[in-house]
Amino acid sequence: MLRPKPPIMPQPTGRLTPPAVVVQPTTITPATSVPPPAPIAPAPSRPVVQLTPGTALALVGGGTAVVLIVGAVLVSLLLAVAVTGVSVAVVAVVLRLLVNDLHKGR
Q1: pLDDT over 90 for what percent of the chain?
Q2: What is the DSSP secondary structure assignment for residue 3, as one 8-state letter?
Q3: 15 partner at 20 to 30 Å CA-CA among 4, 9, 28, 57?
């Protein structure tokens, strides 16, 4: 039903000789002198950024806002972890008391 087929080589596997290359002699002609191109002034690699007092104030205000927002998010995450830990501890204590009451009652 399913029979594998051996791969068929598209080229013969024997030793092949490369074709002969014929080298033609060429004549050398003297080049005419070409004047060198005029020097070109280099373009500035990047534009110069100038900070005005208003721009500096905006950057400081933006950086402060980012720091405050990131700090608030981190503090809220820490608070969430602490509240979760306390609630798990309270549940564990309640379950332990209930299990102990069940064992004493029997």
Answers
A1: 44
A2: -
A3: 4
| Length of the chain, in residues | 106
- 1 to 4, 5, 7, 72, 105: CA distances (angstroms): 10, 12, 19, 69, 72
CA-wise closest residue to 51 among 63, 59, 42: 59
CA atoms of 67 and 60, how far apart (whole Å): 11
- Give which of 84, 64, 82 is closest to 74, Cα–Cα: 82
Q: What's the distance, CA 18 to chain centroid?
A: 48
Token pair, residue 52, equals 């005005």
pLDDT per residue over 54-78, tens digit each?
Answer: 999 999 999 999 999 999 999 999 9
Asked if residue 46 has pLDDT above 90, the reply is no
Helices (DSSP H) in the chain: which residue ranges?
Answer: 53-105
